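As described in the Methods, two query proteins were run sequentially through the folding procedure within a single session, without resetting any intermediate state between them. The first query and its resulting structure tokens are shown here.
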Amino acid sequence: MSEQPGEDSSVSPAAATATAGVDVGGTFTDVVVLTARPRAVKVPTTPSDQVDGVLDGLRLGAGASDRVAVMAHGTTTATNAVLEREIARTVLVTTDGFADVLSIARQDRPSLYDLSVTRTAHLAAGTVTAHERTLPDGEPLVPLTHEEVERVVDAVAALEPDSVAVSLLFGFAADDHERRLSDALAGRLGVPVTRGSALLPEFREYERASTCVLNAAIAPVMQGYLAELDRRLPQTGITVMTSGGGTAGLDFAAAAPVHTLLSGPAAGVVAAGAVAASAGFDDAIAFDMGGTSTDVCLIRSGRPEIATDAAIDGMPFRTPAVAIHTVGAGGGSLAWVDPGGALRVGPRSAGAVPGPACYGRGGTEPAVTDAHAVLGHLDPDRELGGGLRLDVAAARRAITRLSDAADGAAGVLTVVRATMARALRRVSTERGVDPADLALVAYGGAGPLHATALARELGCAAVVIPPAPGVLSALGLLLAPLRYEAMRTVMSSPSDDIADVWTALEREAIAELRRQRPGAEPTSTRVADCRYAGQSHELRIDIPPDGDVAGAFHRAHRTAYGYAMTNEPVHIVTARVVAEADPALEALPSAWDQGKAGPDRRRRIHIGGEAVTARVCDRAGMTPHDAIEGPALIEQSDTTTLLGVGERALVDAVGNLVVTWDE
């Protein structure tokens, strides 16, 4: 990273090289730097310019002795752009008769008995229709003439867009019309053009159009951010985390930013799967509690579940995405009393600025972190990420706006844990998965403070807390492989010969990864979205080595729904090939630079409404096979682990804390 006029540089160009994972969250930016011993740091996120926070974290993590040569990056830029509507002026081009495809959407109602409910407005500022039509098999019904192309381009230009989305009816089946319109629009207007048949060659016009418009709306924003990041880190090879659990090159992320809408959470789940496996648990729930939200995901056989449909602010997008369930409950979530007198927590958050009252940055409303400070769970004399020190008096003043300080703080934790418990049940018991067979992998800056209480309520087998839980998502960025998924809607039977489709998809996926990383040797996996005849939705399955698609689907259907209709015909709706190449980090680090450990001490804290004397120790002083009994607090630079009465934490061979308890 050479120093350039007007630029920041974390290290000198003569320094040794290092690899870093940087995850930008709503409150903190987490950094893991791989050198002789991995180093983890947290710095406040800089909402006005996220690049500043990234550079701050790299300076602290890499110091003056290392140059960051490779960086895997998780970013909230695309997500925030949608949620805050800081998007480009976008025009949708679609087929005659389908101008209202985004307005009509599906016939599901977000609140069945609410007469005043309104849907989220879609992001297209205008729509232009083209006189053309393609049949489902790809044959043209109404040709697209040269004159019509010119008319459409003129109509779009008159709307003065910053970005254009082209999504024609059955464009996935034949892309000639979309290609011609996209080429003409790009050549005339000079703005980003998202072509639906390239972004999402699948059926379902509404979801495809929504995905296409979302991508177009955030493309200029993401392109600007990534260009600035590349400019200020000119000697660093940068990859960006995608929602599907892999990374991608800068050019791919800039052209298809809709793939990054779940960037950070996906990285954490990848790492959580590796952590669970290292502790001896094949099946687990990833539990990531950060500053703004909590993300949970089911992990089976060490792998997170992948879905092909997701939504942001009520708008669907069909890209491969780790099947995460998110609730508005984080360390910065604000507590408030509703008109009926009930205590509520979230979804509104104090964010990074001003943050919870205890951060001393001007916040006055009570947050979850303030409750922990009042109850003694957080040490005011200990420095947090970015040099923060807690102002317990300010936290107490904020909490007393709700009730007596201790009672109010305990109530805040009870309410926020109820919200998170519902999320955990959503991905386990509500799907027929017994939590007794699962470990809860807790991470995020606030996760280990709540993990044991939630796991015991849910009935999990144990809690696993990795060596650096506050920055696990940043570590997951380094564990995630370079990944690309090629897909095509085929609507076929398992007995049909679609060998040519599989071959074409494999060539596409492998070629794309080699384009992003020259010299890469990708591996590929065949996947299919299948359903029974007459069903409306599909299940994603891996194609087994013996090619028995029907048998694999029957098993997957029985696992998901408790039954299988083995006499019903099975349809392959969409064929997929997933190509992956080597990640930056092949395995979990065996040792971490946790800093210097201080002496054990005691502190009076409140747990479950009772005042107790807790042992307080530094995690930096714990080595494999060490054990600690609750009540206790295990402190480290990126988080604090809370152990209740009757809970025991054992350090395993790779440095995880494995917590169990008395029944």
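Immediately afterward, the second query was submitted; its sequence and tokens are:
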Amino acid sequence: MKAGAAIAGYSRRAGLDPAIVGLVAFFAIHMLIRLFGTSNFSVDDTEAAVHVQVFQLYYSLRNPPLFDWLFYGLIQVTGLSVFTIQILKTALMTGAAVFFYLALRPGFRHRAALTAALASYGATAFYGWDIFQQFSHTVTLIFAMGFTFWALMRVVRAPQTIDYVFLGIGLGMGLLSKYLFALYFLALLVAAIRRPAYRPAILSARMGLTLVAGLVVVSPLLIGLWEARDALLGTLGGRVAGASSGPGLESFGFLILLTAEFWLPFAVILGIALARWPASAPAAETTAAASEGDGDANLYPLLRDATVIMVAAMFFAFFFLGTRIEGGRYLVVMFSLLPAAVFAGLDRRPSFPQIAMERFFQGAIGFVVIIAVFRFATFLFLSPPFCLPRCVLFVDYAPVAAKIGTPDGKQNVILSNHVHIGSNLLRLVPNAKVVIDAYTAGSDLGIAPPAERNCYFVWFRNYRSVDELPLETALRQALRRDPLPSELAAIGPIEFATVDWQTKILRSHGPDTVVGIARIDSAERICDGGRIPGLSPPPSNNSMQ
């Protein structure tokens, strides 16, 4: 039976769209793998966990606050835990995929091409692997991209006034996720204007509603950033224009490797499918490619042009502005539409490669399953000593929390030099507040008066190394300045906790991590996040409090 006919038949019998069921299952399974692996926060999640001790209009100049806002709201209901943050991420990624699918579905003629396009994202390195390993703000960015594309396609196909409002909401959410979203939005608008069928809807006066809605959504951030506008412009300028005067051969090679990593698995599977089963294959190897409708002939040019605009902008910024492309997260915007564009183009071919689409879908699903099994195995067998992802993810902080927890009902204030320590102690230590200058500077954390708190400094004394980190050096890292003699004198008894790994099978690898826990005089200024003018770096956050 043809893959497209089988899917359509299942959909009629079950009353569900199997594509949506598959998308939900894909993200839910990866969430379960993550929850099985460790109860610790992932590397990017640690920053969010420390930030959301208090609600703020913005938390850092580097990243807009939408993910932090959503995380803060959810922990008021479910509490601070890895489960909470994984539920949030899974909901956002699933929502992004569903909105993207709903936007694509009317534009395809052949169901086989549509389902292959969806599967192709799981066969990319970023969406199939990287997105589950870390990332927080990028997850809200992906949701905003999916929602905005859905809203845009509603606007250009049969616009209602509410659709322009939806598009503005998408614009606001995108800017609240990552500032790079502006490039994605502009590329979509320019690509849509290039299509005569879409142009009237884009040039309509109702686009003013989009701008108003976007401004309303992003206004809380604008209010919070107003006093820090000069620093924000400097930060954005520094990220767009690199520190070097021009790109070097090494950085260009790194960009090419990142680009190849993004699309390589999906391109290999597609290349094999098209080479083995072209549309012009002998009759014995072909099937009739019945279309499900006329689709939308403008979809492929829109996706193609928007992708070209974004990739051209990336290389222009790299070569002429010296912009540093530091990781795969910076490519997610530029290549987010590329897989769909490839299959939208194949869908419009007069000679449709039906078998190739079916075989690609099968190959992509096989790749997705292999990656899911490998992720499960990395948690079960390979971490540590090989650590995929980073080893710090598997440190067992329970012995540290046991030494800090007190029965007197006082607040536990924890000063640390490492955000992974601080964030995970937040979920383990009762009534805790964590102070890490690089993340909490300028925030009113609601720290209790000296008589109502216990204060500790916690740091990695040894971490996978024979070299010991002295207390004074660790305190310097935590404060981002040299500690004063009075602050060193306020350090009381020091205990050390030798901690093991959470990994279930390879605990015999050895407990090579030692955490230092130093009691601090609760009256000391550093226990309430106090900063010393002229010594402490300027705060990077503004609190509502």
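The first strand starts at residue 411 and ends at 416. We note this only descriptively and draw no conclusion about the first query from it.
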